[in-house]
Structures are given as C-alpha cells and as structure tokens.
Amino acid sequence: MVIGDFNCAYDTSSRFYDSSMHFIADNYLICSDAQRVSDIFTYCRDDGLHTSWIDHVLCSKILDDRVKEINIHYEYQTSDHKPLALKLTGLDLISHANIATQMTHYNAKYDWANADIDQYRNTVHSELNKVDIPRCMFDCSHNCDSTQHFSAIDEYYTQLITCIGKCTAACVPVLKNRNNAHNVPGWSDLVKDKHDIARASFLEWVVAGKPRCGYVHKMMCHTRAEFKLALRHCKAAEEQLRADARASQLADKHN
Ligand SMILES: [Zn+2]
Predict the structure, then answer these.
(1) How many Å lie between the centroid of ligand 1 and the Cα of residue 147?
(2) Residue 13 dihedral angles phi and psi, to the nearest 5°
(3) Cα(145) to centroid(ligand 1), Å
(4) Which terminus, N or C, of the chain has the lesser number of Cβ atoms within 10 Å?
(5) Torsion, CA 170, CA 173, CA 177, CA 178, rounded to 10
(6) DSSP 3-state of 86
(7) Cβ atoms of 92 and 117 closer than 8 Å
(8) Please, are residues 42 and 84 in contact by the beta-carbon 8 Å criterion?
(9) Contact by Cβ (8 Å): 77, 184
(10) Which is more confidently placed, 237 or 183?
(11) Quick one: 35 exposed, middle or buried, by C-beta within 10 A (0-12, 13-18, 19+)?
C-alpha cells in the first residue's frame, strides 16, 4: 500500500500522469481512491481558486479488495492538503497488537538531534544483514493466497521492526521531555477559536460548491488567513522562548 501526496491528479492532463500510471502498472497496484470516490479534492490553495486531487491510496489487489470506504477530511485546517482516510475490513491485526505490546521501546521518544547517526547507520546495517528474507518468498506469485507465505511475511516484518527498534534503543538517547512536537503552546488561548471558525467557514464553502467569489468565498479566505496568522504568531513566540533558553544556558556556561 502506498499512500500520500503524489502531486498528480488521476487525469490524463496531469503532468505526472504517465509516470504514475507506469508506477501503478509495474507494481500491480490499484488506485483505490479513484475507484471509490469522485469529484473530491485533497489540495486547496489558500485563495480557494485552485483545488486538486493529488493525494492517493494505491493498493495491491488483495488489499484493495478489503478497502471498505474512503473518506476525505475537509475539516482539517492545519495543512493545505486534506487527509484521505480509508477503512479496511477482514484484516487480522491481532498478532501485530501482541508485537506492539512486546516492544516497549515502540512507544519511546528518541532524541535524534543528539544521536550518533553514523553509529546508528552502521549498527542497523550490520544487524539487518542478519535478518534472512524468507526463502519461500522468492517463488511467490503476485496473486498469492498461501497462508504459509502470509505468516512468513508477518514473521519477516516482526524481525525487521524488532531489529530496527533494538538498534534505535542501543544507539539513540531517549528524549526526556515528552512534550509532543505537534502540541503548539498557546493553541487554546490564541489559536483554537480562530481554527474553529476557519474550519466552519471552510466546510460551508465546500458545501456551497467551492464558489470562486462572493460572501462565502470571502469568509473562507478571511477566516483561514486569521487562523494561519495566529498559528504563526504562536510558533514564533515558541521559537523566541527556545532561543531565550538557549541564550541563558550559554550565558551560564561562561559565568
Ligand atoms: Zn506467496
């Protein structure tokens, strides 16, 4: 399954259409969103004058058969892209849940900025070399439904993830401050109201058929600009606090 921003509409007039079609054909994939939804957009320029459908979900036939529904979340305001969400049925994820609980380091936050990346790279390289690719995979067809192969893939996946997890735990310091990078300090006081208004205006604009002028269009652009400005102020203030802390740390060292 390949998900994300392809910068390409599922449309012959799109610049990367041919390359995308080759990629899809070469890898036996299906564009699951194009098969299920129509007349949507996943990207919207701030002025509302340009929208496009350039994010996609590409699946193998086996996974595409299990895609139950695909939805676009127009209510998300923090990016000019709108998330695509899909529901899959008939996936047996029980064994994976067990793996996640076995791996306590799975939930740890690592301080990559202070990691010895060369050491990490060398460790991962030599440890991954010890993980064998299951032999049976070499003569597997693209329309495989062998349960033996499925469990071999599960086992192989577990070994890869566990190996990378162990290397990370061994080479990268754990982040002590668990403050989530996605938390914006001051959001509730300064940004939340503007965000909620911008979201409501945007949804109203979508329901109205994405008008390119008039009151609904103007309100969408205006409230969106207000929200982005407030968010920018918040982030700038946070950066200033960080800079102040670094400066006083430095000053303490020299005293
Ligand atoms: Zn197979």
Answers:
(1) 8
(2) -85, -10
(3) 6
(4) C
(5) -30
(6) strand
(7) no
(8) yes
(9) no
(10) 237
(11) middle
Distance 148 CA to ligand 1 centre (A): 8
Say which amino acid occupies 72: I
Tell how far the Cα of 214 is from the centroid of ligand 1, in angstroms. Answer: 57
Q: 243 CA to middle of ligand 1, Å?
A: 54
pLDDT digits (tens, 9 = 90+) for 93-138: 655 545 544 555 556 788 888 899 999 999 999 999 999 999 888 8
- List the structure tokens of 246: 């670094």
- Of 228, 238, 230, 237, which Cα lies nearest the Cα of 179? 238
Q: Say how many Å lie between the CA of residue 221 and the centre of ligand 1.
A: 51
| d(CA 141, ligand 1 centre) in Å | 6
Residue with tokens 């606090």: 241
Ligand 1 center to 107 CA (angstroms)? 32
Q: Calculate how far, in angstroms, residue 208's C-alpha sits from the geometric centre of ligand 1.
A: 49
Cα 109 to Cα 52, 66, 105, 179, 180: the distances in Å are 35, 33, 8, 10, 9
Count of residues making up the chain = 255
* Token pair 């991954």: residue: 128
Distance 153 CA to ligand 1 centre (A): 9
Expressed in angstroms and rounded, the spacing between residue 144 Cα and the centre of ligand 1 is 4
Strand partners, 41: none
CA 231 to chain centre: 21
Secondary structure of 53-100 in the HEC alphabet? Answer: CCEEEEEEHHHHCCEEEEEECCCCCCCCECCEEEEECCCCCHHHHHHH
Distance 33 CA to ligand 1 centre (A): 26
How does DSSP assign 149-160, residue by residue? HHHHHHHHHHHH
